[in-house]
Amino acid sequence: MPYDPVMASAPSPLAAALERVGDRWSLLLVEALLEGPRRFGELSDVVQGIAPNILADRLRRLESERVVRSTPYSQRPPRFVYELTPEGSELAGALRLLADWGSRVARDAEPLRHVACGTPMEARWYCPTCARAVESTETDEVRYL
Fold first, then answer.
1. Which of 69, 100, 103, 144 could serve as 109's disulfide partner, Cβ 3.0–4.6 Å?
2. 82, 70 contact by CB (below 8 A)
3. For 26-31, what is the mean pLDDT?
């Protein structure tokens, strides 16, 4: 698909993503749900410092954005288990990139490591058409479509 200047004037893909999941708590909830379904109390324990009203609000918002799905497990009182939708699971790559950046700029953050050998992981852009990694010197040519 050729580069379309009209598309370039549309809101950026980053702006669209941030509109859906762009706050701290939402991203931490997605990270917590990457390990599998969790109940409200479990999420509250895993995501340290989140107030119950904020947790409930973010879960409702993520559900309305089709990132999280809730399934009732109790009718009285109503209780739910929360899990990522396939669309929500796609955020894993973006979260890994943010975690990688965080590990490089924070003093006390540990980088993501390869389980087999313990080497810190590196993120790279890859072009499936050319079947090669795109080097940082070529990023001026990268366009969001």
1. 103
2. yes
3. 93
